[in-house]
Specification:
alpha+beta, 3-stranded antiparallel sheet, globular
Length: 135
């Protein structure tokens, strides 16, 4: 019986390692707070007592260039792609983003827009006054 538990434990650990490895290689593992490494990828989850608004600021002009109120019960995932348009000196990078209902651990971003490079932008997180409840 101990041998069966040991083999099962090894299989589970091995499977988990493969899953994490595959998600890490793809760069699409959507973990709240970020991927845990420098992918320039972030996920924010709105909850009833912490409804979130995320804004992107152009630090050269202090202008809000993009903002989204993340609905309660949803998550916003975003990823910056550096040097997407090298010929555009003002907005060479690309922001890819998606809002999903509930929690998602992986997915494809269908929204995008050109944005300033990493040294000319800032992501601001604001907590809206709560509680808010899913509509």
């Amino acid at each position: 019986m101990n041998r069966t538990r040991t083999v099962l434990g090894v299989l589970l650990i091995g499977g988990s390692t493969m899953l994490v490895g595959a998600g890490g290689c793809a760069g699409t593992f959507l973990k709240e707070g970020g991927a845990g490494r420098s992918l320039d990828q972030y996920t924010y989850v709105s909850r009833p007592h912490s409804p979130k608004t995320v804004s992107l600021i152009d630090t050269r002009t202090d202008e809000v260039i993009w903002t989204v109120d993340v609905p309660v019960g949803h998550q916003l995932s975003m990823r910056f792609v550096p040097n997407h348009d090298r010929d555009n000196a003002f907005t060479p990078d690309l922001l890819r983003w998606e809002i999903w209902q509930g929690r998602r651990w992986a997915g494809r971003f269908t929204n995008s827009m050109p944005v300033p490079s990493s040294d000319a932008r800032r992501v601001d997180l604001t907590l809206r006054e709560g509680p808010e409840f899913p509509g």
